[in-house]
Automatic annotation (TrEMBL):
PANTHER family: 5'-METHYLTHIOADENOSINE/S-ADENOSYLHOMOCYSTEINE NUCLEOSIDASE, 5'-METHYLTHIOADENOSINE_S-ADENOSYLHOMOCYSTEINE NUCLEOSIDASE. It comes from Bradyrhizobium japonicum. Signal peptide: none annotated. InterPro entries: Nucleoside_phosphorylase_d, Nucleoside_phosphorylase_sf. This is Hopanoid-associated phosphorylase. SUPFAM superfamilies: Purine and uridine phosphorylases. Pfam families: PNP_UDP_1. Residues 56-172 form the Nucleoside phosphorylase domain.
Length: 256
């Protein structure tokens, strides 16, 4: 993937914006469709490699975009959270780019501004979410933001997080909803159906989740319309590119 950032206008010499300067990292195919190009569906360890390669080719900012699970009991399906920071692990937190976060909050009135957690797997119990929220202060969790935060910090480029609550803190997910997402960010419908046949008692929970999903997707589409193609990136037309350390560039070249 080659992403060009800023080119000079042939007549004026002024920098010209390029939408491909911002990469959206998502976890689901529907999130990728809403985000538009260029959006990258997280694929485990390969995600970091692809992000480094995109940054090597000129990307200037990364945004974690999509749905999330609520940890703060005050959040409801469809509520939007802009990250002030990302909690990635014990004693590992990364501040989001403040000018970018401010622009997102300006463009999405009513969005919350708070810490978000990036986790390796969904939190399955109500007690786990409550305790995690109490210890870290994170109001929501997703499975991509920690990757974005770590890569952005490593290469010293701005990152932001815009997430919409799907599953609120007080609602336990049915077992079928915890089945691993399949290739290209699409749910494994056969596995979900098999789980439902084995345990029909999940049906009410899945029905409630379907309603919540509709609300979350509508809110995510609305947020993207407000943010536009550039995701509100405030540094897009700056002449000064955020420098990438030589050591980081050498690391990228070795891995590419």
């Amino acid at each position: 993937m080659t992403l060009h950032v800023t080119v000079n206008d042939a007549q004026t010499g002024a920098p010209r914006c390029d939408v491909k300067a911002v990469i959206a990292v998502v976890g689901l195919a529907i999130e990728a469709r809403i985000a538009g190009a260029p959006a990258m569906i997280a694929e485990g360890d390969r995600t970091a490699f692809y992000l480094r390669d995109a940054i090597r080719h000129g990307a200037r900012g990364i945004i974690s975009f999509g749905v999330c699970g609520g940890l703060d009991p005050k959040l409801r399906p469809g509520n939007i959270v802009i990250a002030s920071s990302v909690f990635a692990a014990k004693d590992e937190a990364y501040p989001a780019d403040h000018p970018w976060a401010e622009e997102l909050l300006r463009m999405i009135p009513g969005a919350s501004y708070a810490a978000i957690a990036g986790v390796a797997s969904p939190m399955t119990s109500l007690e786990e979410r409550r305790d995690f929220h109490g210890i870290t202060g994170a109001v929501a969790a997703d499975m991509e933001s920690q990757i974005v935060a770590r890569i952005a910090s490593e290469l010293r480029i701005p990152f932001a997080v815009c997430r919409v609550v799907l599953n609120p803190a007080h609602r336990k997910l049915p077992r079928a909803a915890l089945i691993d997402i399949g290739p290209a960010g699409k749910p494994e419908l056969r596995k979900i159906g098999r789980s439902l046949v084995q345990d029909p008692g999940q049906l009410p929970g899945l029905s409630r989740l379907a309603v919540d999903s509709v609300m979350a997707v509508m809110a995510l589409r609305s947020a993207k319309r407000r943010l536009g193609a550039h995701f509100g990136f405030p540094h897009l037309c700056s002449r000064d590119r955020v420098p990438i350390p030589t050591r980081a560039l050498e690391t990228i070249a070795t891995r590419a």
